[in-house]
Description:
The structure holds two protein chains of two kinds. Chain A is α+β, with helices and mostly antiparallel strands.
Amino acid sequence: MKKRLPALFVVMALLISCCQLAIASDVQLHASEYLSRYTVALGPGDEKGEVKLGFSILATDTMTQLGISQVEIYKSNGSYVTTIYGNSTNKLLGSSTEHHSGSYIYKGVSGTSYYAKVTVYAKDSTGSDSRTVTTATAKAP
Amino acid sequence: MKGGNDDSMSEHKRPQQYAYLEQLSLEELKGIIRADAESEENEDTDFIYAVLEVIDKKERELPGYQPVDVDKSWEEFQRYCEARETGGTVQPHAPVRIVRKRLVAVAAAVAAAIALMLTVQAAGVDVFGAVAHWTDDVFSFTWGGRGTPERPEWAEALIEQGVDANLIPTEIPDGYEPGELFIEDIGLWKEFYQPFRSVDNSLLSISIILYSSPEYLQISTYEKDSSLVETYEYGQGKIYTFSNIAENKVIYLDDLAEVCVIGSLSLEELKQILESIGGIIQ
């Protein structure tokens, strides 16, 4: 029994050390070398059946691509509706900038409430980073 | 005490000989107060009071005039001075002429403020950009600096776009040049984004976001590392500071307005920038 105690201490020390590393690693995951701030919300649109996705993405510096790479639309009951991919045409993605913002209109069904899972994205010559945020629900007028 | 009291001023009858003061601009009137504060000669106290009275009257006539929160302004002023004193050798010995006033309104408070302003300035801090003036019921700060107050073009542009001057930082470090102002009115919120670049191309950005509803206050996410978040009350709002790897962030939240200053400068430097909100660069 006495011989086992030192070994037990070593194992415990290793476990504690591993836990600390995991915690530190987890915390660092929340920092980003590419993304600085993202503001995303879904609100009712101006026209019947529309909801409006507003977004503003701020990067840590000039990015070759910055904005929203994808938007998944869901009904408030959780049923999947569609996915919209960001590009320069729909203006969800911008290029050569540290700041990109705008709004995107989704035409749904009047009286239906939607929410969105939005992936914000930043990329430069050294790499890229993304985050997915889920909006609150908004009812199409 | 909050909300001020118009009676104290209106009850005091201003001598006819000072009627011409009505013709002077606010800046000229405040210049008189400043000159008086810095002078060792005794000025006619009736004259000084008349000037303060006209300043008060003219400010009330300004569009968008809002009554001053006296308690808060006084607390801010005291806090500001205390903060400066802790790092310096402030002694109340400056050549200040104490204004004696038969009305309770101005006297002791003006003298104390002028003494503090002079001593703080003597310690190397120029607080004369703001003149504190008050009666027995109201206290406020206004511009009292030398010359004509001037804001940088980018700040003027923000004001022209409807941003409250009290939300605009004005102390940008030397070497940073403003980039193009970006304005986006999304309906859910309105954003003003003003970037600056240093000579070595470091980014310093100021974002002012005006949310249309309290429910949208939660929609902004700031990336941060494991550093601690510092928070403290400032003005009518609260300031939050933290870092995200190589960049630091200082955020001011006041009701539905969020002002964010981000850059590679130190947190102290960014705080200094943010705490210049509402000020005016000479």
